[in-house]
Amino acid sequence: MEKPSPFPCSEEKIPSYIAYRVNERIRIDGLLDEACWRIAPRSPRFVDLVSGRPALYDTYAAVLWDDDNLYVGFWVEEPLVVATLTERDSPIYEDNDVELFIAGRDAYYEFEINALGTIYEVLFIWEDAYEKSGYSSLPELRRDVPGVRLFPGIGFRNHPRGRRIGFWNWDFPGLRAAVHVDGTQ
Questions:
Q1: CA neighbor of 66 nearest in space, from 21, 132, 12
Q2: pTM for this model (two decimals)
Q3: Which end of the chain is least crowded, N or C, by CB within 10 Å?
């Protein structure tokens, strides 16, 4: 008998996506008007993270890469764009925002950006892997500095994997981001 998924969206229902290599220069301006963005396949329509049902409004993404960068573009339908927070790493998930998670076996990176271009980012490492996988030996991932704390998660009382260590003091090296709102805020 197959074990039920602890998450609203089972792994079998998570769509896969192929990121295509590009040879042209991509401007980081939020417009997504280069030819590569026009021809890049878009992801399936997003689903709600908590319920697993299709998102209320159309939201799609495309991913491209070159020798130096990974590019992620989002097209988000939103009739009421609201963004109020302007300080980096403030809780912009309280505004309309777009969220990107890059997951590995023992850690994952969370990036969020609102319509004002305010960025929230954090690196999470599963506590059971922090010592075992060697993260504890990296000076930039020390647990005893400001901006580092245990994180039980949102919506999970006891996450199936256990606790995470959140590094709110860590910033993705070389990160560049931009937003373009087609409408008004």
A1: 21
A2: 0.88
A3: N
